[in-house]
UniProtKB/TrEMBL annotation:
Domain Flagellin N-terminal: 5-140
Compartments it resides in: Secreted; Bacterial flagellum
Keywords: Bacterial flagellum, Cell projection, Cilium, Flagellum, Secreted
Family of this protein: Belongs to the bacterial flagellin family.
Keyword Transmembrane: no
Organism from which the protein derives: Lacibacterium aquatile
Function: Flagellin is the subunit protein which polymerizes to form the filaments of bacterial flagella.
Domain Flagellin C-terminal: start-end pairs: 199-274
Protein name per UniProt: Flagellin
Length: 276
């Protein structure tokens, strides 16, 4: 190869190789620092656009599960309240059985009647306190819908206030008329058994709602995991490979720099031809 002070082809080649190596090194360092092979539209506009759409879908699914979690909270509060009502009714059954005994009279009967009245008030208090973020499925008969997926489809939430009110109505019959009024509560059509049946229905409906929302949340979480896996395959960098590539390019950069330095020194050979 001819030596010229005007055109140093060896230096041009070495400079081009060094430039390409620096570009590759910059891209690799970007992948290592960001963890993505496609960190922005400059890397690959089409793939990045798809990734952004997937991220948007993930955001929607996350928001849906947040709303479903709120609905689940209201149902769990309702379950606590109705379960407390059911447990308290067991105490009321004991008090009512004592009142139905004709041998109970005088101050003992008065105290038992007061006890039954207080127990009844506890039931009412449980129902009114079953509020979760403004929603009360126990004392408010308003049904509502909650979003269940990122497409805007709805899931119906049914209140149990109708059953609870019916139970309270059956339990609120006066027991102050002697043992016969208490006994009638135990054996008449509108009776303690009616109240137990209504509360049992309320508990069953709450259990069904809890299962429905929990299943929907688990389903959405499965979809979310699938989206994340797809997104990862699109844009995530293999850091093991990138680390090895980074080391290789750093060595190549050093060698290219040395090669360019050597190539730039070649025209100096001309000086020896002129005794310089």
């Amino acid at each position: 190869m001819a030596i010229s002070v005007n055109t140093n082809l060896s230096a041009l080649t070495a400079a081009r190789i060094l430039t390409n190596t620096n570009d590759s090194l910059d891209k690799t360092q970007k992948r290592v620092s960001s963890g993505f092979t496609i960190a922005d539209a400059f890397d690959n506009g089409a793939i990045y656009a798809i990734a952004q759409n997937v991220r948007s879908d993930l955001s929607g699914i996350s928001a849906v599960n947040g709303q479903l979690g709120g609905g689940l909270g209201a149902i769990q509060v309702a379950n606590t309240a109705v379960n407390s009502i059911s447990n308290k009714m067991a105490d009321m059954r004991k008090t009512l059985t004592q009142l139905a005994d004709g041998n109970v009279a005088g101050d003992t009967r008065t105290q038992l009647e007061l006890q039954y009245s207080e127990q009844m008030q506890s039931l009412v208090n449980f129902a009114h306190a079953a509020d979760y973020n403004g929603t009360n499925l126990v004392s408010n008969g308003t049904n509502y819908s909650i979003i269940r997926d990122a497409l805007g489809n709805q899931l119906a939430i049914t209140a149990v206030a109708t059953q609870v009110v019916a139970a309270f109505s059956a339990l609120s019959i006066a027991v102050t008329g002697g043992f016969t009024s208490a006994a009638s509560m135990l054996n008449q059509t509108l009776s303690f058994a009616t109240a137990e049946s209504n509360i049992g229905t309320a508990l069953n409906r709450i259990g069904v709602l809890n299962m429905r929302l929990s299943d929907q949340i688990r389903y959405n979480e499965g979809i979310e995991d699938a989206f994340k896996a797809g997104l990862s395959s699109l844009i995530d960098a293999d850091l093991t490979v990138e680390s090895a590539t980074l080391t290789s390019l750093q060595i190549k950069q050093q060698l290219s720099s040395q090669s360019l330095s050597i190539a730039n020194q070649r025209p100096q050979i001309l000086l020896s031809l002129f005794g310089g």
